[in-house]
Amino acid sequence: MKQSRILMPTLKEAPSDAEAISHQMMVRAGYIYQVSAGVWAYLPLADRVIKKINQIIREEMDKIEAVEMMTPVLLPAELWQQSQRYESYGPNLFKLKDRKARDMILGPTHEETFTEIIRDSIHSYKKLPLVLYQIQDKLRDEDRPRYGILRGKEFIMKDAYSFTADQAGLDKVYDQMAVAYRNIFDRVGLDYKVIYADSGAMGGNGSQEFSAPAAVGEDTIAYTDGDYAANIEIAKSQFTGVQQTAATETMEKVATPGAHTVDEAAESLGLPASQVLKSMFYMATIDGEESPIMVLMRGNDEVNEVKVASHLKADELRLATEEEAEQLLGAHPGSLGPVGVGENVTILADEYVKVLVNMALGANDDGYHYRNANLDRDFRVDAFGDFRNVQEGELAPDGMPLKFTRGIEIGHIFKLGTRYSETLGAKVLDQNGRETDVIMGSYGIGISRLLSAIAEQNADEQGLVWPDSVAPFDVHVIPVNPKKTDQMELAEKLTQELESAGYEVLVDDRQERAGVKFADADLIGLPIRVTVGKKASEGIVEIKLRRTGETLEVNAEELVTNIGILLKQAADTSED
């Protein structure tokens, strides 16, 4: 393929708003083009990478007998209204009307669509299990698109759905998909972690997330050097609280002017922050109704809202407004507490609160706190649980210290159970002729995010460094001076030999200076560069490995053999 025939608008400088190295380099190397905020065009080089990723996915899906199909992006709203996600999905859902004023959406995910198809097509357990998948654009109205294609309004996703007649069938497919995902991420050359995760808006239970460690990752991963890894949203640590044994003292109300934070209240009261109780006030939407929730937390521990919402089985959890706090509790945030709170407010407390005595907490009177408040005597708690964010260095469930890293979510698998089949009426007759809800699983890979994650992990100051398995071309042939007949003739001959041997070759036939060609070659990031220069008349060319920078001169007649050896060595090294 001649480089002059490819749309590849390289730039010397990255866009001023590009923070992530993947964003910077893919724009500079001419892989992607921004059409509008969060909406990108994938130019020819990126398209070739995506096609290779998709092929790897298809090969691994074939191994587990998953079958590819395609559903529409434009969907009627009725199914989403029936599944109750039309409102609960939030402002990220694109909503529109057609010319007949029918409510429509642009699909951000397709559980409802696939469930409807199975409901209307499959009626007996004998037709199950089925595993269906598609590779398709999804659309979500992201409030803050950022990091190039890492978080956009339109993105490419592989989503798969399994349909089985029993739990054992779901478990089998889930395990097969977990192996397939590991194979996919291994083959595309990613460093990744398999972590426990929250199912979020998908619903269901049983969930694993595949995350690629990267500085620009929007998720925090808590992990150990052992087997434990989890998204910070659900990460756990071993409970190490020790019951305090001091005698309970009389509760008293104390003025704490200007004390709005735990540290300020602790200083005002002359107490350690660990003895001050933080009271966070929320509104939770449960079964379509909003209810007030107070969450009690020790000292400077942080409330984990995902854990709280999961405990409540809430569709949505949000911080109460100052007006709501004043109306229901008589004070503003910073002075809130559980003493005297009525039964209309559910009070949850982290398990570490249970071991404290003589606590300080807000008095529901602006500028005042109570000292020596004690559980049961002075205030009630409706339920205790693990409602806090873990902290780095705490012991994980496997007994090893927790470490934190940032990560890019690249894949997620869920055991949905009957969350959608029950709601949408997807049933089959079982072996006894009785109707039973189809049991479902959902399995996604963010392909455009995967492209970004690979670029993020495989780039240096000069540009991109693509793994061999997904590079847009295998070899970059560069005749230093296209005006030299011997260089062009040898470059063309070597290109034909390489292509006959099965390699994909990009030939830089442009009328550019050698320095420009070499800089663009490093920027584009193909695995191997072959330079045809001054020694072309002697039949000598230079090979350069993009990843290591290693160079060697070889006889042109031995080029194909040498490239085969080098690529095999690179593949073996990456597997190690």
Automatic annotation (TrEMBL):
Localization in the cell: Cytoplasm
InterPro entries: aa-tRNA-synt_IIb, aa-tRNA-synth_II, aa-tRNA-synth_II/BPL/LPL, Anticodon-bd, Anticodon-bd_dom_sf, Pro-tRNA-ligase_IIa, Pro-tRNA-synth_IIa_bac-type, Pro-tRNA-Synthase_IIa_type1
One GO term (biological process): prolyl-tRNA aminoacylation
Catalyzed reactions: tRNA(Pro) + L-proline + ATP = L-prolyl-tRNA(Pro) + AMP + diphosphate
Molecular function per GO: aminoacyl-tRNA deacylase activity; ATP binding; catalytic activity, acting on a protein; proline-tRNA ligase activity; transferase activity
Keywords recorded for this protein, A-Z: Aminoacyl-tRNA synthetase, ATP-binding, Cytoplasm, Ligase, Nucleotide-binding, Protein biosynthesis
Function summary: Catalyzes the attachment of proline to tRNA(Pro) in a two-step reaction: proline is first activated by ATP to form Pro-AMP and then transferred to the acceptor end of tRNA(Pro). As ProRS can inadvertently accommodate and process non-cognate amino acids such as alanine and cysteine, to avoid such errors it has two additional distinct editing activities against alanine. One activity is designated as 'pretransfer' editing and involves the tRNA(Pro)-independent hydrolysis of activated Ala-AMP.
Oligomeric and partner information: Homodimer.
HAMAP family: Pro_tRNA_synth_type1
Entry text on domains: Consists of three domains: the N-terminal catalytic domain, the editing domain and the C-terminal anticodon-binding domain.
Descriptive protein name: Proline--tRNA ligase
Organism name: Limosilactobacillus gastricus DSM 16045
Lineage: Bacteria, Bacillati, Bacillota, Bacilli, Lactobacillales
Protein's gene: proS
